[in-house]
Amino acid sequence: MRKRQKFVLSSILLCGGLLGAQFASLEWRYWLVLGLTAFSWFLSAWSLREGLSGIEWLTALMPPVLFTGAVGLFYILLPQAWWAKVMIVFLFGVGQYALLLSANIFSVAAIRTIALLRAAHAVGFVMTLLTGFFLYNTILSLRLPFWWQGLMVMVASALLLLPALWSVELPERISVEIWRFSLGLGWNLGWLAVAIAFWPISLAVASLFLTTGLYVFLGIAQNYFSRRLFPRTVMEYVVVGVVVLVTMLVTSAWGV
Question: Which of 117, 121, 135, 198 has the fewest CB within 10 Å, making it most exposed?
């Protein structure tokens, strides 16, 4: 079976699992999503095993696994409208296939030059943000104490940032600098989650704000690792962050 056929089959199986989990009672859905997330690792490893080596068994497989868990948890929170659930399942299938294709490109590019690497980076960047939004939305919807909210956002962000930063240069080992950036930026996003716990904003706005923070930090960090970080580049990302922050402050229900 060719790799693309494996990617399609894996995506279809995971979509079926996502749909099937919704027919279980609510107390079982989270366990089923956890099982589906673990199953996604085995499917991803099976689909990509010919090209994986060394640290790629972790870094190349993390994005599709995190995406499965993020969408599965977000899916539970959706309203009962059938069109919303069908749309998310379709988005999940397309996203999973795109992530597997990107992971395959990264595994090949680690040993030889490949023309599609730039496209894989773009897809990986977008999918990291989308996965982050789903994870942040799920975490914030739990309405946990602010310290738990910050800790969970920090861990989720670090897990998202690690493979995204590794993919810039595709080293054989994860350097200390990549670990430091992943943990440090995850720490900062965790504190942003603590801050917005005290702001009178909606769940959707708070999730978008954290996703914007991920966009700014990840964009600047990736340009740093690719040695293309210039003042103008930093300013472009910072302006986006400031605009979202000001918009959030203006639309907040202070005093209500």
Answer: 198
From the list 60, 241, 89, the residue with the least C-alpha distance to 164 is 60
Distances from the Cα of 89 to the Cαs of 20, 86, 102, 127, 241, in angstroms?
A: 11, 5, 20, 15, 30
- Tokens 């079976």 correspond to 1
How far is 5 from 64, CA to CA, in rounded Å? 17
Quick one: DSSP state of residue 197?
Answer: T
Query: Half-sphere exposure of residue 185, counting CA atoms within 13 Å on the CB side?
Result: 27
Closest C-alpha to 101, from 152, 158, 181, 44? 44
* 10-residue mean pLDDT series, the chain (256 residues): 85 88 76 90 88 83 94 81 79 92 83 78 93 94 90 96 92 90 95 89 88 94 88 88 81 58
> C-alpha angle with apex 108: 92 to 111, nearest 5 degrees?
150
Structure tokens at 95: 């996203």
Residue 22 φ then ψ, to 5°: -75, -15
Q: What's the distance, CA 118 to chain centroid?
A: 19
DSSP 207-252: HHHHHHHHHHHHHHHHHHHTT---HHHHHHHHHHHHHHHHHHHHHS
Q: Which residues contact 180 (CB under 8 A, 6 or more apart)?
A: none
